[in-house]
Amino acid sequence: MATSTPTRDADAQAPRTSKKEPTAERRQLWRSRLWRFDDKASPYAYIAPFFLIFGAFGLYPLLYTGWIALHRVSMTGLDSMEWVGWENFDKILNDPEFWTSVSNTFLIGVISTVPQLLMALGLAHLLNYRLRASTFWRTIILTPYATSVASAALVFALVFRADGGLLNWTLGLVGFDPVNWANGHWTSKLAISIIVIWRWTGYNALIYLAAMQAVPNDLYEAASLDGASRWQQFRKVTIPSLRPTILFTIVISTIGSMQLFGEPLLLEGGALGATGGNENQYETLSIYLYNYGWNLGHLGPAAAVAWAMLALLLLIAAANWIVGRFFRTSAVRPGAPS
Amino acid sequence: MTLTSPTPTTPVKLAPTPRSGGPSRPSRFRMGAGQHLKGGPFAYAALAVVGFGSLLPLYWTLVAASRTQDEVLASTPPFFPGGKLFANLQTAWEQANLGKAIVNSIIVSSSITLATLFFCTLAGYAFAKMRFRGRGWLMTAVIATLTIPPQLSVVPLFMMMSGLGWGGQLESVIFPTLVSAFGVFFMRQYLIEALPYELIEAAKIDGANNFRIVRSVVLPVARPAMMVLGMLTFVQAWNDFFWPYLALNQQNPTLQVALGQLSASYTPDQSIVMAGALISTLPLLVVFVLFGKKIVGGIMSGAVKG
Question: PROSITE patterns under this entry (chain B) (predicted)?
Fold first, then answer.
């Protein structure tokens, strides 16, 4: 390394005596110090922007949320904070609407994530065939990803309309009665899940596809020599190889479903959107937070909701970790019966 | 998190595997999971169905945007575009402050994209190729930030922004997203593979300081990945809804915020709303048609490294 050699020389002659040395050598010393500083400090300088910005606009607000949650702050007077202790937490934890939105978030999360990832797995399997125009197919299934939440939610709002909506019209062709999608407790959750599934299945399929293509071919060859059928190969080779990727997508989708906001806000729009339907049937935690903070103007309870969400996330993370450990041990177990 | 495993994995092959071998390998036809297997009619049919479902809502956005509201809400929905597209676009433009919204969206998305590219390339390079104390756990910390939803910090963020005098200003949506953990990870993964240590050493021997190395060695090597990351970041910034909707208002919206507010008005005209949705989606669809291959490749190479 070019830089280390002069540095070491400079160290050897460094203490005190350098004052008497000619200027050329002092310059040399300076330069090597600069080099060394450059080498030591540069990596930190390069990663500093990320941590500074995250610290200022991510971590600090996250912690400060907990402090605000103990105060009364209103939208109209952001500067005045009045200490109220646990009152905000009391308020939301005793509010049935809060628990409705917790269970809605959870249910919508399950209804949207599970079919989405299963479909993505199947789709990735299809895309993994040798196909004509493979890029074309991949781009097509990714187009929903280019659509914003707002546009997607608004067009689906029309598709799900009770009378004359595209979906009900199609169901009518097959002989079903029209469904009032946004009004029903299950149908509204299903409707929101369909928007989520529509937007994210292609994206997850591409992630799975990439992982499938990284599976070494020898594994399949060995399996087929052993007489494994295609379905057995899929189950015993593909799925275990994809395990880390599947866990990754589960984590990402779970976090994503905790955040659902645009879809419920715009499914019916207006005042109904801010309360998640006339009976809060599709109100998510994000909507509940928004309604408290931005619609009603009470930021204290909104901050308390944020910390409740944090607690839920930690719970889910713990559950995920346990499930992940279980999968790990069961996948490694040798000679599992087929 | 599975992402943190430091082992570099093999680069993903985007092109379909060429037909190597020749006719003397019958075993190929028995290989499973579709590897090398030719897609049959069933595969094409299934993909066509999924593709139809993927495109239908977008097509119907166009149909609804080119009709009158009465036609859109009729008990038999229209299936083909009508002739009212430009009239609807014009009304949407006037009602929802769309001109300003477009300019704002362009400003916000480009600033976020440029900053993300710059900061994430630097950080990705440091994490990929430089040795420093704490590298391992700092990278883990970067990945860990991916798991924190923005919902958790919006309340103080809103108060901070108003304290800084950025309430309702574009700064309030630009600054929190100047960097992205995904970007750092993405650039790191790319540079681990693409940038040989020899190049860096050679530059050092030539007397280049670290920043010079970044400029003359790292940036040229990183360019293809930066292109992809740039597009992914732009798409995300353009479509971002939650925080902009809370931070901005009708006087100074981005496109998504304007769209949300257009539909939140008391009696929204659905065909006007769809015209707005069309305007907000069209630029990205154009990007997708032009660069679809690159974006697909980027997602596949960026997210897989489990």
Answer: ABC_TM1 (PS50928)
